[in-house]
């Protein structure tokens, strides 16, 4: 496959996601995939496959009531592959088959795993896969404490595994439609075991594989952490804290009314966690206050961390922008954090990524508003959810027309591989002429 060697790493990664989506689409169209043995349309199957592979969670059909066991397993497989990345899965098969992995494959894995080091990449991939299985296994074991007594041994184990994988991969797909279609985890709003386990899985899956490696290597020696790890951990903590406090205040007399103080804190913290690209919900999203709705949109767009199962603008991108603002306010030329100077190109890339995401969401929202007779607030919520690969919805997804679904699929795909990466897939990279043009000042701000 000579043509494949000519593709950039970004295009290969994008192609791998597209192959998973197309394969999943064809499988979901089979009569065996639906509960009533009917053929699901190509568009709806592709929307579901895109949502699962891009670990988003937006659905046109309730996962339990529409899809058969076979269909659910297809979705679960796409979630797992989409969360880890096809390159990671292929590498593990190559390792088991004792196949040689060349330099190009290692460079591709480095970009796919979101790490900056080429040496030890195969060891990192092994840790990612085995670590994922262990964490998901522990999560499933804890969830089974609640699900087995309610559903029986086999079904309880299946529900535990499905939701553990979905939570760790930040996908948000659920099987609670057995009790109430499209209900997600609303029945477990005050269940400390289920809520805490799901939140833990979401956070662990969303901090990034590179951070895992640092935590395993350096343990509690914080000074030994890389700058990336420090920024991810601090930014993630601040976002979770701000989100929890925000939802607690904004929804105190709304969605949280009638709950005890500890239950309000639990529900608010779950909402703060799940808006960071997870897609589960324990409170009524359609009943969010205007302030809570805006906060949700902001957190959904930010998303998780680089090299993780999460999507969105990413925590480090936002951190770089705010650190740059702080440095400019002090009159500093360089951005310095933890006695390290950030490369100037990082600031430029961060600004470009934010502009791409915000522009994409605004343009998509305008287009869908033109096509749909729905409330603009719900439409913006939907587009922010898709771009951040979150999967939260205010009930709009199943009612959308074909054009709106296609727009959301593009947003989900771009949100998973990265907005800048999506541009690089279609843009032809040309060599820049080796000369410096004359500079001139313009007024900004």
Structural overview:
- The protein has 445 residues and is mainly alpha-helical.
- It has one domain (2-422).
- It is 63% helix and 1% strand.
- Helix 9 (153-168) packs parallel to helix 10 (192-206), helix 11 packs across helix 12 (227-250) and helix 16 crosses helix 17.
- The longest helix has 31 residues, at 121-151.
- The model has no long low-confidence stretch (mean pLDDT 85).
When the domains are counted, the total is 1
- The overall strand count is 2
Report low-confidence residues grouped into runs of 5 or more: none
Figure out the total of helices: 19
Order of helices and strands: HHHHHHHHHHHHHHHEEHHHH
Would you tell me the structural class of the helices and strands? mainly alpha
Radius of gyration: 22 Å
Q: What profile does the largest beta sheet have?
A: 2 strands, antiparallel
Strand content: under 5%
Could you tell me the mean pLDDT?
85
The first-to-last residue Cα distance is: 50 Å
Query: How do the strands line up in the largest sheet?
Result: 1-2
